[in-house]
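Lab notebook, bench 4. The sequencing result for the construct came back, and we need a structural model before the next group meeting so we can plan mutations. Quick request posted to the team channel:

Model the 3D structure of this chain.
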Amino acid sequence: MPTPEESLTPSAQKRRRISPTPAETETPTPSVTPTPQSSKTPSPTPSSTPERKGAPVSIVAKEIAGYENYPSEVRKVVDLALDLASRGLDYKYGSADPANGGMDCSGFVYYVLTNVGVRDVPRDSSEQYAWIRKAGKFEAVISRKEDSFELAQLAPGDLLFWTGTYNIERDPPITHAMIYLGREKSTNHRIMIGASDGRTYRGESRYGVSVFDFKISAPALTNEGRLSPTFVGYGHIPSLR
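Done. Here's the predicted structure in token form:
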């Protein structure tokens, strides 16, 4: 039996072959009027800007356990120190002025204490250590335990001292200083504040003027083969205690 197409006349078959199938029929694309583009690239919103890795961090005073019971002079120290940490300042060796965009460790201590009215504050950490020692306000710490009796007299506003944070010839060989804040309410961990080129807060690396964890640990060899920084003790600022 012939197929339906075969039964058509030659002229009908020709007409059927040249007729387009639905798939072959093109639908005209409507013309689109281009939308003018702005010559300016929109600025990112604050929420879309990622936080700089290791950026300084601050807290508010009420997050420190017992802050409301601190002596008024100590609260002044804490308030000014936390304000500086909230400005995103870098670690800047040789600077004791936030207007420079950053400060070093002893410059931070010098700026805070001087601006709350403490007199005769030395500029570098070695001299600050000697200043405290001469006043009879230093407490040595040899133990590496967090619950050592040697930390029993540690109080908010005290200065903390280290040796070996970098290679420099000094006598006494103190190379780093910070201010003790107390214990954070949410964690009950000891915290401190100051300027550093590499410490941690809640286990995360932070750089610049910031709040940091205060921990003491046994010295260990660094990659350069020298001992890591060693905490040597703390001192009470004469006019604050």
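The helical segments are 10-18, 72-85, 105-115, 125-134.
Will bring this to the meeting.
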